[in-house]
Specification:
Layout: E1 2-7, H1 12-27, E2 31-36, H2 43-59, H3 61-73, H4 83-89, H5 92-102, E3 106-109, H6 112-125, E4 130-134, E5 151-154, H7 160-165, E6 173-175, H8 190-196, E7 204-209, H9 218-226, E8 233-238, H10 243-253, E9 259-262, H11 268-273, E10 277-280, H12 284-292, E11 297-299, H13 306-317, E12 320-322, H14 326-337, H15 340-348, H16 351-356, H17 359-366
Parallel strand pairs: 1-2, 1-3, 3-4, 4-5, 5-6, 7-8, 7-10, 8-9, 10-11, 11-12
Length: 369
C-alpha cells in the first residue's frame, strides 16, 4: 500500500504523530510519505501560519484560546462557502494532483486542516483512496464536522459520544489512542537512562518542558524551583525552538548544578525515562508520551484552548495534577518529586491509556483487515 500522511506545521505534535504513523506503516512494508498540508497552498502560507501559531503560543496565549473558543461557538467557519474553507481549498488542486500522480491508496491526516482539504480534493477529483484522520488532542477539534474521512481515530473511548454529537457516524469512529513513535513503547531502566544522560542514578530528576515552542512561564518556574531544590535534585529545562528562552535560562542559572538547560531535544523518550516528574503544558502528544512512560505530570495551564481538555482528561485520570501560578506549581512538583508512594499511584493511573494505545489498529483499519 502507498500511504500519504498529511500533517501541519502549526505545532510539533502533528508532525510527531505523522512520524509515528509512518513508522508503523513502513514496519509492515508500506510506502509512506509525510507532507505538510498547508504547503499545497504555498510554502509562504505554511511558513506564515507556523510563525503566527508559534508567536501566539509564546507571547499571546489568550489570543489563541480566544480563537479556539470562537471556532467552537461558530462551527460554520470551516463549512462550505466560508472563508476558512475557501483558503484551504486553494491547496485542493495540488493535493489532488499529488494523490493521483503518487498512486496513493490511502491518505491519513493528523490535523483538521488536512482533513478538510482532503475531503474537498477527493470529492472534486473523484480520488479512489481510503481516508482517515487522527485526533491529536483529548477532545474533538473545532472543524471536525467539516471533514468527511472514512475513519476517525480518537485518543480514548470516552470521547466517542462527543464526535457522534457532531454528526460523525458512530461506526466510523475507532478508539486507537494517540500514536507515538517506537521509543515510547519500549521497556526501559531509569538508572540506565540516567547514566546515559550523565545524571546521578540515585538522585531525583525533574523535567520541565514547554512544548516544541518553549511556551509557558518557564523562567518563573526556574526561579521558584531555585528556592526549593535540594542536594541531589536536578531540573532539566527543555526550551524547544525558543532560542531566546534557552539563552536567558542559561545565563540565569550558569554554574548552578541543579539546573540543566537544553534547546530542541531529539530524544524526549530518553529524557522522560530518566525523570521522576514532568512539568509541562498539556499538549496532546506530550501528555500521551509521558503516560506511555508512566511519568507523573504537573500540568501548566499556559495556552488553554484544546490543552484545557487534555489537562482535564489527565487530572481526572489521576496521573496529573495542576495548580494556579508558578509558585504553587513548583511547590507541587517538588512535593511529588520527594513522595515515592504518590508517584507510584500516579504512574499506575496511566495503565488504561497504555493498554489502549494501539497504532496497529490504525494500520489494520486502513488496510481493511
Amino acid at each position: 500500500m502507498r500511504v500519504l500522511i498529511l500533517s501541519s506545521n502549526n505545532g510539533g505534535g502533528h508532525n510527531a504523530v505523522a512520524q509515528a504513523l509512518k513508522q508503523v506503516f513502513e514496519a509492515h512494508g508500506d510506502l509512506c510519505r509525510v507532507e505538510d498540508c498547508l504547503s499545497f497552498i504555498s510554502e509562504d502560507v505554511s511558513e506564515a501560519v507556523a510563525k503566527s501559531h508559534s508567536f501566539m503560543y509564546r507571547h499571546v496565549p489568550k489570543l489563541f484560546d480566544s480563537g479556539y473558543r470562537h471556532s467552537l461557538k461558530h462551527p460554520k467557519t470551516f463549512m462550505r462557502h466560508h472563508n476558512g474553507r475557501r483558503m484551504l481549498n486553494l491547496g485542493r488542486k495540488n493535493l489532488g494532483r499529488t494523490i493521483r500522480n503518487g498512486g496513493y491508496d490511502a491518505v491519513i491526516c493528523t490535523h483538521v486542516f488536512a482533513s478538510i482539504m482532503l475531503t474537498d480534493a477527493r470529492a472534486k477529483y473523484d480520488l479512489p483512496v481510503v481516508t482517515g484522520v487522527v485526533e491529536t488532542d483529548y477532545t474533538a477539534t473545532p472543524g471536525t464536522q467539516a471533514g468527511s474521512p472514512d475513519w476517525h481515530f480518537i485518543p480514548a473511548e470516552r470521547l466517542r459520544e462527543g464526535l457522534v454529537a457532531l454528526g460523525v457516524p458512530r461506526e466510523r469512529i475507532i478508539a486507537s489512542g494517540i500514536p507515538v513513535t517506537d521509543a515510547f513503547y519500549r521497556p526501559f531502566d531509569r538508572a540506565q537512562a540516567r547514566r546515559a544522560l550523565g545524571l546521578d542514578a540515585n538522585g531525583r530528576h525533574l523535567l520541565v518542558m514547554g512544548g516544541s515552542m518553549g511556551a509557558g512561564p518557564m523562567p518563573e518556574l526556574a526561579s521558584e524551583l531555585a528556592g526549593l531544590l535540594g542536594p541531589g535534585e536536578v531540573a532539566t529545562f527543555v526550551c524547544g525552538t525558543n532560542r531566546a528562552l534557552e539563552e536567558a535560562l542559561r545565563t540565569a542559572w550558569r554554574g548552578d548544578a541543579r539546573f540543566r538547560i537544553l534547546g530542541f531535544e531529539t530524544d524526549v523518550s530518553l529524557r522522560m525515562e530518566a525523570s521522576d516528574v514532568l512539568v509541562t503544558k498539556p499538549g496532546g502528544i506530550t501528555v500521551t508520551e509521558a503516560a506511555m512512560k508512566g511519568l507523573p505530570m504537573v500540568l501548566v495551564d499556559a495556552v488553554a484552548g484544546c490543552e484545557a481538555y487534555n489537562m482535564d482528561f489527565f487530572t481526572d485520570l489521576g496521573g496529573a495534577v495542576s495548580a494556579p501560578g508558578p509558585r504553587a506549581l513548583a511547590r507541587l512538583a517538588v512535593d511529588i518529586l520527594r513522595n515515592d508512594a504518590r508517584r507510584g499511584d500516579m504512574a499506575r493511573a496511566f495503565q488504561p491509556i497504555v493498554r489502549a494505545n494501539d497504532r496497529e489498529i490504525i494500520w489494520r483499519t486502513m488496510h481493511g483487515i
